[in-house]
Design goal:
Blueprint (H helix, E strand, L loop, with lengths): L4 E5 L6 E3 L4 E8 L2 E5 L2 E5 L3 E5 L5 E5 L4 E7 L1 H4 L5 H6 L5 E4 L2 H16 L4 H18 L5 H13 L1 H10 L7 H7 L4 H12 L3 H19 L4 H7 L5 H12 L3 H4 L1
Antiparallel strand pairs: 1-8, 2-7, 3-6, 3-8, 4-5, 4-7, 6-9
Helix pairs in contact: 3-4, 5-8, 7-8
Length: 255
């Protein structure tokens, strides 16, 4: 039996209020979840994560189109990890934190790996915990370059871009449109965006289309052709090819 339980979930638009006897890490790859702990409320997105200490009451409500990694962490198992006591201190109090580009990319990769190899959830969970510890432990020691990336992040406002994209997945999306939303020239936007996220704007759009498509493939009865149209592909064939390249499984098999 795995020591840690890691799940990729779609949190429904229904309010849930509870507590549990284990710590919890919440990271999202797309979509939004409203989450509140002891009077402190924020939105969990691809840019904002959350640490929930054991036994702390919390409430949440998803938007129905999110893809969220939920890691359950039994307190007694942290002692088995290298630097387990240091990781334990991350859960001293409820905490929301900014997800840096590198951790966001790792979250995407590990969510994909979890889908492909669910039996490796414990190993994937440990890797995710260690990566989070390294980031949060090093965050106060940011260099000038890292602070520059943070400034770019604030200027780009990925949450605003994500919200706009989610409303226009069926449309043609141009870099000029995204740049205008951030009041940047297309060239400057393209270079800043790539520095911040590690991918080009159009690759990011494609990834977001496919992440939303997977939610629809798995959790709706819509035809694949209809889903292809809703997320901006010209036909089912091109959609299926892109889906297979990204997820290494066809949409029909994934369903």
């Amino acid at each position: 039996m795995a020591q840690f339980e890691l799940h990729s979930r779609n949190l429904a638009p229904e309010q849930v209020a509870h507590s549990h006897d284990f710590h919890q890490l919440i990271l999202a790859t797309c979509g939004v979840t409203e989450l509140a702990m002891e009077g402190q409320g924020e939105r969990v997105t691809a840019r904002r994560g959350c640490l929930i200490p054991s036994s702390r009451h919390h409430e949440y409500q998803g938007d129905g189109s999110n893809r969220t990694l939920v890691l359950d962490i039994p307190v007694q198992h942290l002692a088995t990890l290298e630097k387990g006591s240091e990781i334990e201190r991350l859960f001293d109090k409820p905490r929301f934190f900014t997800v840096p580009p590198a951790l966001n990319q790792l979250t995407h990769a590990l969510a994909h790996q979890l889908d492909q190899c669910p039996a490796l959830q414990n190993e994937i969970a440990v890797l995710l915990l260690r990566a989070l510890y390294m980031y949060l432990n090093d965050a106060p020691k940011q260099t000038a370059d890292q602070l520059g990336v943070r400034c770019i992040s604030e200027r780009l406002d990925l949450e605003r871009l994500d919200a706009w994209l989610d409303q226009h997945l069926a449309d043609e999306v141009r870099v000029e449109q995204l740049a205008a939303l951030c009041a940047l020239s297309p060239g400057h936007f393209h270079s800043c965006f790539r520095e911040l996220t590690g991918v080009t704007p159009l690759a990011y759009v494609q990834r977001r289309r496919l992440e939303h498509a997977r939610t629809l493939v798995r959790h709706s009865t819509l035809s694949l052709g209809h889903i292809a149209m809703l997320v901006g592909f010209r036909d089912q064939g091109s959609f299926s090819r892109a889906y297979r390249r990204y997820f290494e499984i066809s949409p029909s098999s994934d369903r």
